[in-house]
Amino acid sequence: MTRGAQQFVGAVTFEGVTGRRVHSEIFESGEALAHIRLARHAHGIVIAPATADFVARSAQGRAEDLLSAILLAARCPVLIVPAMNDRMWSHPQTVINTTHLREIGYDVMEPAVGPLAFDEGEGPGRMPEPDMIAAAVTRMLSKSTALNGKRVLVTAGSTREAIDPVRFISNHSTGKMGVAIARAARARGAAVTLVAGPMEVAPPAGVSTVHVTSTEDMARAVGESIASADVLVMAAAPADFRPSDVASEKIKKAHAPDSLALTATTDVLASTIAARPPRLVVVGFALETESLLQNAREKLASKKLDLIVANRAGVPGEGFGSDTNRVTIISANGDEALPLMSKDDVAEVLLDRIEALISGR
Ligand code: CTP
Fold first, then answer.
1. Mean pLDDT within 94-116
2. How far apart are the CA of 237 and the centre of ligand 1, in A?
């Protein structure tokens, strides 16, 4: 327990409830190297809740108290479960700190969304529910998940179709969902290739990223990696139309055309059907403003998918740009409606379903 933790629950109470000895001091009576022994002993370390201060100190590699010293001495997997005020969580310094912790290989859970302490309203910052943490610990400790060593191809972001050298047609996709899936698959031991159109978020560390601009570029990049892939997740929102003629010079305002002739772009998912290796697990997304489940089921069939993740456009907290999403995962066997959750949690549930499909093949 850190000093902060003991402000909330006394060490004696904790010992009484757990039946385990509580360690809190770096120089415990008679043992100068407690941190080394505890770090060596652990198969995994879970810090829940991790305060903004602890996240900052561990990002700096400090070692002034027992817990941070254990972290530095440890070589086992580490799971950090942040819980803090939503403004502290979204502060650029905390964003830098958590990004850094992920870069050095720690698994940092996204906080849950919901009511926070002190009537602060709702926002991301709550400690995730214990069953989500337990599931993350299980994944962290299971050395061989079904995705371990598998090749996972993920697409993310929008694409751009040029009108002239300065203008384009695109959509509101930010890449958050695809990046969450790529990061989570990497954490499960997969070799991940991310085909990324323009995104508002950075690609995660440890994945091989191929940057593309147009839908044709995306189709080509996916086509190049599909033969060796075990899983394809099309989380990108490729532009469906392109201008039939691209002007080679900037169209001057004075000569604005009355209309723009459009041509359909390649459907990336459909274009892979002939080239898919036999055991490939294929997952698509469906973004709809109406008849969500019916349209999604039609796409599941027409694009020959194993799973389709149906989500709604135009609802606050769901879909484009949001950190959260409310989705239904549809397969030939039925629908699974999930509650509103962070995109990281959606990614974990989706990967659980993908692993079940891999194990069944
Ligand atoms: N998709 C694709 N190539 C495209 C457009 C979409 O591979 N040119 C993929 C998306 O990545 C997603 C799925 O197809 O996984 C469904 O995308 P969505 O935009 O919902 O459907 P569309 O195929 O564009 O159909 P519609 O415009 O009729 O909704």
1. 90
2. 7
